[in-house]
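Q&A FORM
Asked by: J.P.
Topic: structure of L-threonine dehydratase

PROVIDED:
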Amino acid sequence: MLEATVKKILQARVYEAARETPISPAPILSRRFSNQILIKREDLQPVHSFKIRGAYNKMAQLSEAQRAKGVIAASAGNHAQGLAMAAKLMGVKAVIVMPRITPEIKVAAVRGWGAKVVLKGDAFDAASEHAQELVKEHGYTYIPPFDDIDVVAGQGTVAMEILRQHSGPIDAVFIPVGGGGLLAGMAAYIKYLRPEIKVIGVESEDSACLKAAMKAGKRVVLEHVGVFAEGVAVAQIGKVPFQIVRDLVDDVITVNTDEMCAAVKDIFEDTRAVSETSGALSLAGLKKYIQQTGAEGQTLVCVNSGANTNFDRLQHIAERTELGEQREAILAVTIPEVPGSFKKFCRTIGKRMVTEFNYRYADEENAHIFVGVQVKPGGEDRQAVIERLREAGYPVEDLTDNELAKLHIRHLGGGRPKSRFDEEVYRFEFPERPGALMNFLTHLPQDWNISLFHYRNHGAAFGRVLVGMQVPNGDRTHVEEYFDKIGYHYWKESNNPAYKLFMA
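REPLIED BY: S.T.
REPLY: Here is the structure written out as tokens.
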């Protein structure tokens, strides 16, 4: 199968649409990590992602009869734009079914390439089902985003270019993983020609379908998929890609939201390119690999797989960057409610930059402050700050890895009810579409009172929402039954220390 895949890669028709993208050196990163770090620039494709390669190669294999009837795909992102461009170049009708939550910038980009956009459903599954219905109704040919050998072969040309462009030693190549098409194509080519090169897949930790499959020895379906890196938000690795990669990949690394945001900044500082979060995924994995292995003096290559990000997401990305670099500690500290307490607290911290400070009067004895402190990467310096504060007599809660604190409390900290009352607090992911809030409220019993609500638009397909509710005692055990009917992902946060310190 390996040899057959490599032959398909060598025969792939991609350059009628795709460009041979350069490899950019990353001098700042290279100095910082004592390795030669190189970035393959797929963000420079006409559709700003590698997806044009697989989409065009698949369409090039279609018969005249198939092209005459047109092509279709379900996609909320880069595959949609790749297919739309490929279809325009070939003069083929293209229909793209997109969820209604798809950001308008992506809908407009697909229409800009001449494709017909059909908005259907609130999630990818509903769009995919509708696309299959249209296939039966009109005879369109469905062009899959990753689970197809011709798509895999098209994506594999990225590796072909890397090995041709950099003839010197390469120790490892880091490749982002969603459905696995890019990883499968690149791994097949690299391992066939240069088996000594490590091939490492990188996944978002909340959509790690390949890691789960490798552990189980078979493909599995994730119960929940995070949407922050929407370009790789896939619940199950593709069948064709998994058959190829299961014996070729040396390792799979997972990274979190903050680490991806930090990698977006790194790419910008070295190349001035603004990557999407999934586009920076492989660099985040590369950095984690260095930290875990202590690698020095090696040549490491990663793929900037795309740059289709909404401008209004950049504020949120920048906000999380320092945490991703482990250069900021987020702490909840209790200080006496007396004049001079803040000055004494700052003196205890020493000559460090205070990056954030949130406070609201709570009672006459103590004040709970939400504070950000600049620290050195690695975690040891953060622990040193915490220990120093505790030695000075301050109760400290480390919130650096607390999602509720980072998404909501830092913007709400200190708001409290005047009198004590019971409430249940949940964190939700609402689809970014009209009617999402009304759908939520409609499913709640009429005698439940909304006591807290916080929402921020991050320019993504889903919004992060914090909700507090006063629930009659008799209904408390049935709260989550109502939420299950609504269908939005949720997390109970009533016992979260960040909520208890600043909002309860």
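FOLLOW-UP: The mean pLDDT is 88.
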